[in-house]
């Protein structure tokens, strides 16, 4: 057996046994964080103080950078910053485009592209914006719509033509000031930025304008007579909240469809009007008896297109210059309404007055008198709205100062309006609103009474065909007054229509009797009887006897027809 050497005795005396080493290893594992493998010691443990040393070194580096920022010149720091950004742009696969809130450095001119980006990202149907981690919710006092915006310093992602883009909303507070600097940063793939930038921004603008048109609060304007300064607005407004729509409008289905199609084509025809060289405007003439629904149709058009309404009162306008100023102050996407155009101002008399004055001036031989009278005429015309001024308002050069406008004239009597106002190019669409038809009555019964069918519907439609139709306003008032009982309401409507038929028949008989007694020459009678000589050759007694017999036959036939229409069949 070999004799142990000195090293063996040192190892035996100083190295603990294996079980003791394992016990110490467990204790060290609880005291230290993680083992480190080294060639000399396979189970060396790194203490906690190493992590604290790393943090202290980082804070020391930040402190050094702060000292260098205060010591180094600003030009050198700007150069270092630009070099860092250039290096970052060189290595980054994306391109960044900043869109500030205001143009320039004055902070006065609002950047329209920033507004469009804000509206585009805030659209309620914009799915990428709703997936953002943090949103800012808001609601205006005059609207029930809840809008949300991207929170400051947050990013929202979007997709366009198969590429992924990102928007970042930056909000920075200026030093020693409460003002905030807002901007959007658009991130695009660097390889496709030239092919994506222009089409994507056009897409953003289109979607933003559509969202603004639908979501913004509509206003009802009227011309203000108290404005005295040239910088004051000639319009005052209130929120426009008229509930009339095409779904609730009492109108024949075919006419309603044609109007909606025309309005849609007009709203989407920007490129068409530009291509054909016409101003982007449309003229509507609504004529019909009072209560036929002209104002309700205007409100339905405004709600359908989401346009503002400008109710122009011509009696408050002093002259043509003020009328032109009011036109300039109207906004795009608006409806300019002049109700009762035949009663607002005496426009049809302009031609007669000018002819009369021209005849008087031609009889005067003195140049002094002619000059004085001409200047008086010009002053008189400049002191009020003339037909020429209104024609320039609707179809002149000043009518092209805005886009997407609709001009609406209403009148109770179509023939009393000057033909120059209603020709094509000024009033493009003429809508005749008469009494309530069969489809319109069913629509009113559905809206007011909730009726889809009733036993008296056929009797009412018979009265409508027989000349006893009422206006939608009259029918609506009867249904509103009796909305608690549908049967009573239907009977009252039927009675009113029967009374209307009797009144029309009595008025026709009285008019015919008066024409026969007085001998009035009506154009219809002249056409029926030939020349006026033959018409005068008839004796008054013979015509009166024939007329009496004809009236008796007409009355008998009328009452028989009325009885057949109002007779209700129990089995029906």
TrEMBL record:
Domain AAA+ ATPase: 280-435
GO terms of biological process kind: response to stress
Keyword Iron-sulfur set for record: no
InterPro entries from the UniProt entry: AAA+_ATPase, AAA_N_dom, At3g28540-like_C, ATPase_AAA_core, ATPase_AAA_CS, Mitochondrial_chaperone_BCS1, P-loop_NTPase
Catalysed reactions, semicolon-separated: ATP + H2O = ADP + phosphate + H(+)
Superkingdom, natural source: Eukaryota
SMART domains: AAA
Molecular functions (GO terms): ATP binding; ATP hydrolysis activity
Enzyme class: hydrolase
Protein's UniProt keywords contain Nucleotide-binding: yes
Record EC number: 3.6.1.3
Cofactor(s) demanded: Mg(2+)
Assigned keywords, A-Z: ATP-binding, Hydrolase, Magnesium, Nucleotide-binding
UniProt family annotation: Belongs to the AAA ATPase family. BCS1 subfamily.
Protein name according to UniProt: AAA-ATPase
């Amino acid at each position: 057996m070999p004799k142990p050497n000195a090293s063996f005795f040192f190892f035996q005396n100083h190295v603990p046994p294996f079980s003791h080493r394992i016990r110490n290893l467990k204790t060290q594992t609880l005291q230290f964080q993680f083992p480190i493998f080294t060639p000399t010691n396979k189970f060396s443990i790194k203490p906690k103080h190493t992590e604290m040393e790393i943090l202290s070194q980082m804070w020391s580096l930040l402190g050094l950078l702060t000292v260098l920022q205060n010591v180094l010149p600003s030009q050198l720091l700007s150069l270092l910053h630009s070099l860092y950004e250039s290096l970052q742009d060189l290595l980054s696969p994306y391109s960044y485009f900043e869109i500030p809130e205001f143009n320039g450095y004055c902070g006065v001119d609002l950047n329209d592209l920033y507004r469009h980006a804000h509206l585009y990202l805030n659209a309620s149907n914009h799915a990428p914006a709703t997936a953002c981690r943090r949103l800012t919710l808001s609601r205006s006092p005059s609207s029930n719509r809840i809008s949300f915006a991207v929170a400051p310093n947050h990013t929202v992602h979007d997709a366009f033509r198969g590429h992924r883009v990102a928007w970042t909303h930056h909000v920075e507070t200026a030093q020693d000031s409460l003002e905030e600097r807002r901007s959007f940063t658009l991130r695009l793939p660097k390889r496709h930025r030239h092919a994506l930038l222009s089409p994507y921004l056009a897409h953003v603008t289109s979607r933003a304008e559509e969202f603004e048109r639908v979501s913004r609060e509509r206003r009802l304007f009227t011309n203000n007579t108290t404005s005295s300064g040239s910088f004051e607005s000639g319009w005052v407004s209130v929120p426009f909240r008229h509930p009339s729509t095409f779904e609730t409008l009492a109108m024949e289905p075919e006419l309603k469809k044609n109007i909606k199609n025309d309005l849609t084509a007009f709203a989407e025809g920007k490129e068409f009007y530009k291509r054909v060289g016409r101003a982007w405007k449309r003229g509507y003439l609504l004529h019909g008896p009072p209560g036929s629904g002209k104002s309700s149709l205007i409100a339905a058009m405004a709600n359908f297109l989401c346009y503002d309404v400008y109710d122009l009162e011509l009696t408050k306008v002093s002259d043509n210059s003020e009328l032109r100023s009011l036109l300039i102050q109207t906004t795009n996407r608006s409806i300019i309404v002049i109700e009762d155009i035949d009663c607002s101002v005496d426009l049809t008399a302009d031609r007669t007055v000018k002819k009369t004055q021209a005849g008087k001036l031609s009889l005067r031989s003195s140049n002094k008198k002619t000059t004085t009278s001409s200047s008086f005429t010009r002053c008189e015309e400049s002191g009020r709205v003339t037909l020429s001024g209104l024609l320039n308002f609707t179809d002149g050069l000043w009518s092209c100062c805005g886009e997407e406008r609709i001009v609406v004239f209403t009148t109770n009597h179509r023939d009393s309006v000057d033909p120059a106002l209603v020709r094509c190019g000024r009033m493009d669409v003429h809508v005749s609103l008469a009494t309530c038809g069969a489809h319109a009555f069913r629509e009113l019964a559905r809206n007011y009474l909730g009726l889809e069918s009733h036993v008296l519907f056929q009797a009412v439609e018979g009265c409508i065909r027989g000349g006893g139709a009422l206006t939608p306003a009259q029918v609506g008032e009867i249904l509103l007054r009796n909305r608690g009982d549908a049967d009573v309401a239907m009977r009252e409507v039927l009675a009113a229509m029967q009374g209307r038929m009797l009144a029309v028949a009595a008025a026709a008989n009285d008019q015919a009797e008066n024409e026969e007694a007085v001998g009035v020459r009506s154009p219809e009678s002249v056409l029926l009887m030939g020349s006026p000589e033959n018409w005068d050759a008839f004796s008054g007694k013979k015509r009166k006897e024939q007329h009496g017999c004809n009236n008796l036959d007409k009355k008998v036939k009328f009452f028989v027809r009325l009885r057949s229409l109002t007779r209700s069949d129990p089995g029906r």
